[in-house]
Amino acid sequence: MVVVAAAATVLFLAPSAAAADPSSTTVQATPSSATTGQLVTLDATVTCSSDPSGGLGVSFFDGPDLLATAPVSADGHSSLTTGFTTTGTHTITAAYNGDDSCGASSDTTTVTVSQTPVPPANNPGCLLCGLIDFHVGDIHNEVNVSGHNVTRIHK
Hints:
The structure is a single chain. This protein is mainly β and about 160 residues long. It contains 2 helices and 10 strands, in the order αββββββββαββ. A hairpin with a 2-residue loop joins strand 9 and strand 10.
């Protein structure tokens, strides 16, 4: 309901287009499933028999919240790259605001956001287990004194 109200607000604020051709908008999120902080590209395509690049562009919403408004190219493409800080299903609306040549239109998609995995805590003590080997035992020294072989054993 809030998404519809937000999109309707943008559509009604669009310039008057009495003689405008009808348009349609599609939106796609890539990837459609992400982790918090991961970048997601929102691609909107506006189809109109006239050039849709004039006017206010495409406004991208996450639920009722405006993410940004991006221009539309002459071939009808508009995109926004964003990340999400909260988990859950995000309803994305791309609302083409229309212009003198093309009427306003919108479309929605969803992005499912999960928590970024946290690697296990680094425990350097465990990393050294088995890598250090101590031997305690007899030490043998051999000393040669004027042609005599003397062996000393220290314990």
